[in-house]
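Reopening this one. Same input as before:
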Amino acid sequence: MSKAASVSDYRALARARLPHFLFEYLDGGSYDEVTLKRNIEDLRSVALRQRVLRDVSNIDLSTELFGTRWAMPVGLGPVGLAGLYARRGEVQAARASAAANVPMALSTVGGCSLREVAGSGNVPWFQLYFVKDRGFVATMIETAKEVGSGALILTVDLAVPGSRYRDYRAAGGGLRRMAQLLARPEWLWDVGVRGRPISLGNLEPIVGKRAPLSDFQAWIHANFDPSVSWKDVAWVRSQWKGPLIIKGILDPEDARAATESGADGIVVSNHGGRQLDGASSTARALPGVADAISGRVPVLVDGGVRSGLDVVRMLALGADFVLLGRAWAYALAARGGAGVAHALQLIDAEMRVAMALTGCTSIDEIGEEIVERSRNQATF
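Same output, byte for byte:
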């Protein structure tokens, strides 16, 4: 297998290993993927001030979040169906994140259930969606309590699913789906055969243990709740006493509303460009959101992060913590848990280089003062 030197390399390896429909689900965005592209391009356009002759012989990446000292301000964000990218994929990722001392968040729509991942001895944070069946929501919150999840991430930007053209184009059953599976024999043996039972993890009580992906998509469209409002966030807050993080914030007014609703943190996110196409990139939205809540709660961010340099850029723009999404999922798809572990090592090494060359030796030294304020970057 080719050696990966970057997250971009892992993307290429994932494309070569995953069945076409599964790679398209992971890699794609909504509509024409304008926001998906902006997430990457806007972040890359953030120039940092290179500084010299600073003592950068001792660099510390560690940071504290919700009472825990983490090895670096980076976590594995929730990624749907990650359990299908490698055999029992979310269990492998949880082990890798625990070994690296960074948090991982398990998606409601993961391939492995919360109980299965927690049973591996590496309890993840849990990402929760609002659905019409509040009994299901309450049950998942109770499960997160029982297994000891360190935080609950409530995703609020999916009142209705975005229209994802790539998924439609790659969809299909019968002979077409079989041809895609047979074209990836390594994945088929590792996941399709040795990774059984294949299910939708947390959704098993609703869609069953053997539900195909078409049932998953149908369930999403039928059960996500467009009537959700801030009063529902207050209801979750009443059910969950641990750290509550609101994910899907792009607007400063929504950031203030989140803190007023009792959130302990927010995630600046546009769902990886999978919802409102044409919405702001997270790099552009981040400074205004961070200013609006003025340090009242930690600001996390995701979207377009493909390197440790990108992590430093996000911290400089106002984030306290950065969640990886596709970056770790590509690595998982390519090489399982070992790929995730290596991707985190790459992020660590790249952060150290970026910090050394901007004159920062600790995370709290990274701020807006290391951003190059040129005319071309006036909007940042």
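So the earlier flakiness isn't reproducible anymore. For the record, The domain at 7-370 is CATH 3.20.20.70 (TIM Barrel).
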